[in-house]
Every structure is written in C-alpha cells, then in structure tokens.
Amino acid sequence: MPKGKESIQRVRTLLLKTLQDGEFHSGEHLATTFELSRSAISNHVKALCELGLEIFSVKGRGYKLANPIELLSHSQIGDYLCASNKNKTSLIQVENIVTSTNDIVKAQMLEIESGFCCLAEAQSAGRGRRGRTWVSPYASSLYFSMLWRFSSGYQAMAGLSLMIGVIVNDTLLELGVGQCQLKWPNDIYFNNRKLAGILIEVEGQVGASASAIIGIGLNIRLPNDVKGIDQAFTDLHTISQQLIGRNKFAAKLIENLWEALPLFENEGMKPFISRWQQADLYNNKEIKLLSGKNVTVGIGRGIDETGALLLEIDRKIQAFHGGEISVRPA
Ligand code: BTN
Fold it and tell me: Is 143 in the pocket of ligand 1 (CB under 6 A)?
C-alpha cells in the first residue's frame, strides 16, 4: 500500500467508516481488510485518538468507538436536500481536516458563488470571537462556513449574526431539539450552557459590495474528556440523548440559510426580530455589558432592527452595538 500523506488519510477515513457503527472490530479482521499489519492498524487507531476520538482497545475483542459517530458525507447531505435544491450540491464542499472552514471559504472567494459552503470533520486552528480558539475535535461537532455576498455593501449586514442565530435555532426546532436560547450577539444556549457559536468575517470596503464568511460551530457530541473549553458548554447528544445526524442537520441548516439570506439582504433584521426576541436568553433580566474597560448594568429589553442590544437603564432604553454580556452576580 502506498505511504503518502493522502493514502494515510484515506486509510484512517476507511477505518473510521468501519468503526462508526460503534461495534467491536478485531485487529486481525481490520488488518486483513486494509492489507496492513496489526501494528500498523494500532498506530492508525492511536493517531485517530490524538484527533480527539475515543476508541477502546480490548484484548481479544479489538477496537470500538466509545460513541458511534456519523461521518460527513457529501452524497448524504445531497440526499437530505429537498427536490428544488438537489441541483445545488456543487455549492457544498466537504473536507476532512482543515485549519478553519472560514479559511477554506476565504481562500476560494474569487471563484465561488454566494451560498457556497464548506464543512469539515475537524479544524486544527478553529477560531472563535475575540481571538479565542474554537476547540474542534474530530467528527464531534458541526464546523461550517458559508459565503454570502452583499451587493449593497457591508452596511446591509447590520444584525447578520443575530439573524444567523435565529436560523440555527429554527433548524434545531425543526429537527426536534428543544427550545434553545439566544445570547446577544450570537451564541446559542441550552440550559445556560453554550451549544453553538457564530463567527462572521467580513471582506470588502465601505461603499463597495462586501462578502460575509459566516462560520458556525455547533457541538453535536463532544468527547467526554474534551479539554480547552473555558466556559459552560453542552452538546446536542446531552440535550436530546440521541445521535443527531450531522448530514441531515447540515442539509437543513444550509437550506434554511439559502432561504433566509436573500430575505435578510432585502429586508434586514425586521422579519427575524420577533423570533429572536422569543428566544432571548436575557429578556427582562439584569445583565452587565462589558466593553473594553466599560461596564454597563441594565435590564435586557431585546434588540432593535439594527441588531443593537436594548438595555433599560434608569427607566430609559439605550441601544448598544458592541460588547459582551455577563450575568450580574446575585
Ligand atoms: C464563538 O462563539 O466564539 C464563535 C465560534 C465559531 C466557530 C466556527 S466553527 C466553523 C468556523 N470556523 C472557525 O474557525 N470558526 C467558525
């Protein structure tokens, strides 16, 4: 068997395809199937564990994934698209390990159309807002980025990240996950724990057309021993106690975004405001807004049409465009 990097990757993907059922597979059987020695199989399994996968190795029984997974599949995502979108599968790219799906979209910006998106099994340099790292273990989350061009410039993007939060929430509801909450400006929470985050990177100049790279990270089933997440978090498996198919979720999310983004481009945040308010995590709650060294305390009163956070301070409503919410300690 050739030893190139690509072929190593191919063997590991095939190995995972075998293990994804969550059953035991003996080292001997795997060695025969892949025409490799048993120690080569053991090394590939070790490498998969280093990517964040939990694989048990039990003497006499073989290898077994601690939790069954569903690998991303371009054809399965295509199968889940509705009939009117079946001809749009060329707008969907599925990758194995990338630095960041936002990088992959950005690198192709000159050649791709609005609505093009990329999904990956893992990110080696996933990023979150405010320079944070987005921990991205293999096959345990959705790492997703979509390009959208705004012909009238970046002013038309006001509130974009809030609208994306609404669409992620709608998709979760559509797939039977319970009611999630939205934390201004762009986090999705369940039971006060973060389930998903949104990172929008803008390319373009004032006055000219501009493009948004919309990055979404949604925890599906994180490994039990996941490290490096510095805030309370949850995943879909914990919430719903079932394996949520990433391919189905991806297809529904992509279709919902394809439908919502043209509406947002024409009408802005208006058609989405009431859905955002319904899921507002901090509506009528006392919160602190941190912005640099400034701390503003007020009562959350939803958002306006520009996506600004409304806070009631001394009985007056004030709008805030930047900052991060922290809950006021009791
Ligand atoms: C945040 O809450 O801080 C935003 C997290 C955004 C993570 C996603 S995962 C897909 C895309 N690629 C990245 O590197 N980041 C976003």
Answer: yes
